[in-house]
Amino acid sequence: MNGGMAVQLMADLLQTALVISLPILGVIMLVGVAISILQVVTQVQEMSLSFVPKLTMAAIALVIFGPWMLRKLAQFSTNLWASIPSLFS
Fold first, then answer.
1. What is the pLDDT of residues 7-27, one digit of tens each?
2. How far apart are CA 17 and CA 11, in angstroms?
3. What is the distance in angstroms between the CA of the first residue and the CA of the last residue of the chain?
4. Residue numbers of the chain with a pLDDT score lower than 70
5. How far is CA 32 from CA 26, 36, 51, 70, 72, in A?
6. Under DSSP, is residue 83 helix (H, G, I), strand (E, B) or coil?
7. Whole-model pTM?
8. Cα separation of 55 and 40, whole Å?
């Protein structure tokens, strides 16, 4: 295993982590912006007003996108395990 292969494995790992985390982070970001706009318009600065909807939507997004995320993670793991023999040859 040379340095180029290690860098490629790390790049694949980071790309997979980014792709897996994007749906939940995107939903949380959109909900956060909507709640912030609501707080600015109504001038209600309650901490739980921003936390509870984000937590709820994150749980809903995890239920919706969870199977896809697990498939992507399993696919990455399978490819990683399949490439182990070629790493040391």
1. 999 999 999 999 999 999 999
2. 10
3. 8
4. 1
5. 10, 6, 9, 25, 26
6. coil
7. 0.79
8. 20
3-class DSSP assignment, residue 88: coil
Ordered by start, the domain boundaries in the chain are: 20-83
Nearest to 27 by CA among 76, 72, 67, 60: 60
CB 22 within 8 A of CB 68: no
pLDDT at 85: 87
Q: How far apart are CA 56 and CA 62, in angstroms?
A: 10
- Pairwise CA distance, residues 31 & 40, whole Å: 14
- What pLDDT score was predicted for residue 84? 85
Residue 48's pLDDT is 79
Residue 8, SS3 per DSSP: helix
Length of the chain: 89
User: What is the reported pLDDT for 56?
Assistant: 95
Structure tokens given for 9:
């494995």
